[in-house]
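Researcher: We plan to redesign the surface later, but first we want a full-length starting point. Tokens attached.
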């Protein structure tokens, strides 16, 4: 949802990414939205737990224990979103269908592990950045803004098909993540698919 909503102004008016004051306002809004409450929770956590090294790693956005790891995911995505939109603007010149296809390729690349990402520390382990999930929201935003979705009846029929929805989810999330998401067991060994 974040990827979709934050991309909407840029998908509606692609030139906004080249308007530096608008991009500055984007970053200021994101900082005002996240940082004060994040620091409040980090300070409260320090006061209750007393772990100074965890506190410093948290306020430097390197570590996110508990639910704070999700905030770090959002924060890093906020930083990279304008870069991705900028590439779309200069390479595809506002063509939303081409931008959508490019973003879907990025989604598949990130979710399948073809494109490496750096990790953040949280929940007692190294957690990869889930860029593919955010970028899928961006892709859906560009698709939503394109004329293709409103004028293509074949696309609308395919989009209304539940089976095709599952196929798209498999492509976007990757086999293993999709199976974990819907709760199917033993995803590392697909032998369970063949048992009767």
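Model: Full-length starting sequence:
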């Amino acid at each position: 949802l974040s990827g979709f909503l934050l991309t909407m102004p840029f998908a509606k008016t692609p030139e906004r990414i080249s308007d530096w004051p608008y991009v500055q306002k984007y970053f200021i809004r994101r900082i005002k939205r996240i940082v004060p409450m994040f620091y409040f929770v980090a300070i409260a956590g320090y006061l209750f737990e007393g772990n100074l090294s965890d506190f410093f790693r948290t306020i430097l956005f390197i570590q996110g224990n508990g639910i704070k790891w999700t905030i770090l995911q959002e924060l890093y995505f906020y930083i990279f979103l304008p870069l991705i939109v900028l590439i779309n603007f200069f390479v595809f010149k506002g063509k939303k269908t081409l931008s959508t296809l490019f973003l879907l390729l990025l989604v598949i690349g990130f979710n399948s592990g073809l494109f490496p990402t750096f990790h953040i520390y949280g929940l007692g382990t190294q957690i990869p950045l889930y860029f593919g999930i955010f970028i899928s929201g961006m892709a859906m935003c560009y698709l939503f803004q394109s004329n293709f979705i409103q004028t293509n009846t074949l696309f609308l029929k395919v989009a209304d098909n539940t089976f095709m929805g599952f196929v798209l989810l498999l492509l976007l999330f990757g086999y293993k993540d999709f199976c974990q998401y819907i709760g199917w067991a033993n995803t590392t060994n697909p032998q369970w698919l063949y048992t009767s």
